[in-house]
Amino acid sequence: MHATVRYLAIVSRQPEPLADFYVRYMGLRELTRSASGEITLTDDLYNLSILPYREGGDEPGLHHPGIAVDDLDELKDRVQRYAPDLTLEPEPGGPHYGDYRLRDPNGYVVSVSGSSFGLPAPAPGRPAIRHVALCQPNGDAVADFYEQVLGLEKRNPARWGWNFRALGDGYTAFTILASADEMRAKGREVGVDHFKPGLNHFGIETVSPVEDRLVSLPEGARIAKRPDRDEYYRVWDIDGNHFDLRGGTAWREEAGDPRTINAVWDEQAAAATLGRAR
Questions:
Q1: What are phi and psi of 3, to 5 degrees?
Q2: Rounded to a whole number, what is the distance in angstroms from the first to the last CA of the chain?
Q3: pTM of the predicted model, to two decimals?
Q4: Lower Cβ count inside 10 Å, N or C end of the chain?
């Protein structure tokens, strides 16, 4: 079963302004919207679905990731083999939701789609979402779940620590970070990457200079420079959701063999150069 991370869900009290933020300032484009208020954006790799908050429903904020698989029957077999106590709960499908949702070992939701969440084959340029980070306890069990049940690949397990596990799919660097309680138990500071449990943040890789995307951000958004690395900022959107904005190619390399994606970008750059020459 081939699996890729292709979806992120955000619940918002103001879907229209939030969608406008990601289109205007982060370079995404609108894919589709529903009569009931869901708005789906894309970077040609991800489906970023902004779901309207409804009284008594899911709380506002970054909510959950989604995995696209090419064989739902094999997924069902994997659930029976590795997580027989789990239930595949039906979702509405279409571009805004998966076909099913299930819950990881800590009870956090992940959606699964057999039709790539309404997206075509991945063809990421830049900017593109290239990183997803969860903040959860029991990191080894969560990593096993994403590998065994959902088909992601573990990356460099020899480099893992108590506070970090890495998986990938060739496109996305998928990270599991320690929970706030685990950080405190080790006597470590609880920083921004550990404040919010579940889906904690994601990362957008952009064209240099990164600062060009940070000019004149709207009221309510804010940024913080990562002092340890160049071209690396933390950004909070107008709802207060945290994501990383980064130049370079580090996430591609962490996600797996970058040659396939590099080839895509090389082809895009060559085509753009040829077009200018004409």
A1: -135, 140
A2: 43
A3: 0.89
A4: C
